[in-house]
Amino acid sequence: MIDKRVRDVAEGLEGIQDGSTVMVGGFGSVGQPDSLIEGLIEQGARELVIVANNAGSGHVGLAKLMEAGRVRKIICSFPRSAGSVVFEDLFKAGKLELEIVPQGTLAERIRAAGAGVPAFYTATGVGTKIAEGKETREFDGKTYLMERWLPADVALVEAWRVDRWGNCDYRGSGRNFNAIMATAAKTTIVLARKIVELGEIRPENVVTPGLFVSRVVPFQSNVSV
Amino acid sequence: MSEFTPLSRRAMAARVAHDIPEGWVCNLGIGIPTLVADCLPKDREIILHSENGILGMGPSPAPEDVDPWMINAGKQNVTLLDGASLFHHADSFAMIRGGHIDLCILGAFEVAENGDIANWATSAEDAAPAVGGAMDLAVGAKRIWVVTEHTTKDGVPKLVSHCSYPLTAPGVVDRIYTNLAVIDVTSRGFEVVEIIPGLSFEALQVQTGAVLYRKEN
Fold first, then answer.
1. Less CB within 10 Å around the terminal CB: N or C of chain B?
2. If contacts are CB pairs under 8 Å, which of residues 133-172 in chain B contact chain A?
3. Which domains, ranges and CATH numbers included, belong to chain B?
4. What ipTM goes with this model?
């Protein structure tokens, strides 16, 4: 019997190594697997490279992990936003490396990694600071920038309903980076808002097929949305 | 000295909204562009796109109708219209980068007469600027309209001959709506389409950092 469910956050995060590249899904607070992110503090991995759209807000989730000194580098599109105080302090103090990636390029680098495409060309960033040091090439009279895929060791994802095979659907705007990060990591750990029986998500409505999912962690109800 | 009143942010948004035709798919940037959503003509179907995976955003919800799972790219709660669809970030940016979005309305620090736009970093030394989806939208949308005050709070022109801030994208802006005028970016530079009542062409030129041309009809 295939059963990817684990008991709790600690079992879900077992084996994550120091120096791992960890993708963190969500956009704003929607679909952000805060209990998995905060679980990394207890889990103990250090020198992490985080891939996320934002660099955390307030003192929860990603910001809390950064505040605990576990993050060496962050790859994101929008580090500064309302409440990104932990990021700003660490960055100013030189304790955090930053790689800024345009949001569409970030999404496509993740998608490419999931699809086994090592590089691609895009018009985004041509003629800007983003292009510095990168290869450009002309196609049909227009200049494009080469961008590399962005594979990860671990993806932390939040989904709405998940079955024991790992099939997922998402609620509202919760697909965002979750559905693509799930495809791009060696180990994809899904925080399931609801665990459902096989077949309960109709096949035509499965967004992330279970093959992309390694472990399914039940949602801890003591964590805020 | 003639009398004139610069448009408010809301009036600028309404002026832009007036020009969006039926059926266009539009993405609205942060700031004044976001206000356009509430000014769209009620008799036209215009589809709003959001980077985080939404087509068909409706008006802001009443406090009792807030769905915490529905936010836009500015992290504000939104509603969906009948006919809306939801998708992930790679599909969302495929719509943007694949040229499927009819119009993107952006704010800007500076726009140059050749259509260059700078709207993400306030200095070359800023090591942590937030680019978000601006670069993708600037090169991917079929049209780029900028809505911005004509000058900074200190009176420094934002419409210039060359951008001094780091570029978001070169040569992409089609039209600019300011609190003083509507200006097209053409092969010869800035062409004035309309000026608010009471302000002369010459007075507008004084507040602009590049040569203005009168639109030839």
1. C
2. 133-136, 139-140, 166-170
3. 9-214 (3.40.1080.10)
4. 0.94
Work out whether the CA dihedral B51, B52, B58, B59 comes out positive or negative: negative
Question: Bridge-partner residues for B160, per DSSP?
Answer: B112, B209
Look at A123 and A225; give whichever has higher pLDDT: A123
Tell me the two tokens of residue B24: 């266009």
Angstrom distance (rounded) from CA A80 to CA A57: 9
CATH class of A9-118+149-218: alpha beta
Residues 108 to 137 of B: which have CB under 8 A from any A CB?
Answer: 121, 124, 127-136
The residue behind tokens 């610069």 is B6
Q: Do B89 and A171 touch (CB under 8 A)?
A: no
User: Which pair of structure tokens corresponds to residue A51?
Assistant: 């891939």
Question: DSSP assignment of A40-75, as one string?
Answer: HHHH---SEEEE-SB---TTSTHHHHHHTT-EEEEE
Domain ranges of chain A: 9-118+149-218
pTM: 0.95
Q: Write down the residue that tokens 């009819």 correspond to.
A: B102
Would you say how long chain A is, in residues? Answer: 225
Give pLDDT tens digits for A106-162. 999 999 999 999 999 999 999 999 999 999 999 999 999 999 999 999 999 999 999
Residue labelled with tokens 């000194």: A69
* Average pLDDT over every residue of A184-191: 98
Largest CA distance in chain B: 55
Residue B84 sits at φ, ψ, to 5 deg, of: -70, 160
